[in-house]
């Protein structure tokens, strides 16, 4: 996360105390980059990441109460889409001692907005974001990579690309969910690189690899908690059927021509 003063070299960098909820693949990736940016990070998660956090110089809290009381400027929600509700509802959020900005990074947007507004005390700010990058594409930092966000309830302004949660989910169902689905289909087909790859086929192999590098929880969350995803799955199925029918029709035309 860039601080409010951004990464522009002419501006001083404001360092923040950032608490991370959910220290899986994406949470760890964010923590490593934010540490490099000079922010202080602390984390809590279902799994005990004490050892890893020790190596990374991130404070790890097994107990969520001291985590909430640890004077966080920002709390980043990095849990899976499927577990968000359970995780937030299990946190004693009334124990928060100070005004905090809650930022979620889930790859669907209406769902976390609704849950955050439901569980958070009124004096907590809410920023719903979707970083359009991951540990691989963001491994050299995320400057210049897109991040979609909606300031759901934010008193302090920051500089980013704004989009409503609804619009985000509509667009993401047609882009991100679609590419994950096709990647998963290609994985089911067990496609592998060959000795005579075309550029297009290499793109397909990369798509398969990138889709299967993400957890199935992430993929199913994109489907279950994005109300526009089901329609896209149906569109995919119908389009597949149309292409197949066109091929079969052409084949039967050719066969009848050659039999004349
Ligand atoms: P993920 O499988 O979507 O989420 C893994 C995280 O969820 C871990 O921190 C895990 O905790 C936690 N979790 C899962 N089930 C849980 C449960 N029942 N109770 C408590 N915690 C639970 O994989 P991810 O790649 O790390 O993604 C995290 C979030 O970032 C997701 O919401 C995803 O949509 C978003 N995101 C990911 C990417 C990406 O490229 N990976 C990009 C943008 C946004 P433990 O590790 O403690 O088990």
Automatic annotation (TrEMBL):
<dbReference type="GO" id="GO:0004665">
    <property type="term" value="F:prephenate dehydrogenase (NADP+) activity"/>
</dbReference>
<dbReference type="GO" id="GO:0033730">
    <property type="term" value="F:arogenate dehydrogenase (NADP+) activity"/>
</dbReference>
<keyword id="KW-0175">Coiled coil</keyword>
<dbReference type="InterPro" id="IPR036291">
    <property type="entry name" value="NAD(P)-bd_dom_sf"/>
</dbReference>
<dbReference type="GO" id="GO:0006571">
    <property type="term" value="P:tyrosine biosynthetic process"/>
</dbReference>
<dbReference type="InterPro" id="IPR046826">
    <property type="entry name" value="PDH_N"/>
</dbReference>
<dbReference type="Pfam" id="PF02153">
    <property type="entry name" value="PDH_N"/>
</dbReference>
<keyword id="KW-0560">Oxidoreductase</keyword>
<feature type="coiled-coil region">
    <location>
        <begin position="226"/>
        <end position="253"/>
    </location>
</feature>
<dbReference type="InterPro" id="IPR045011">
    <property type="entry name" value="TYRAAT1/2"/>
</dbReference>
<dbReference type="InterPro" id="IPR059064">
    <property type="entry name" value="TYRAAT2_C"/>
</dbReference>
<protein>
    <recommendedName>
        <fullName>Prephenate/arogenate dehydrogenase domain-containing protein</fullName>
    </recommendedName>
</protein>
<feature type="domain" description="Prephenate/arogenate dehydrogenase">
    <location>
        <begin position="16"/>
        <end position="260"/>
    </location>
</feature>
<dbReference type="InterPro" id="IPR003099">
    <property type="entry name" value="Prephen_DH"/>
</dbReference>
<dbReference type="GO" id="GO:0070403">
    <property type="term" value="F:NAD+ binding"/>
</dbReference>
<dbReference type="GO" id="GO:0008977">
    <property type="term" value="F:prephenate dehydrogenase (NAD+) activity"/>
</dbReference>
<dbReference type="Pfam" id="PF26213">
    <property type="entry name" value="TYRAAT1_C"/>
</dbReference>
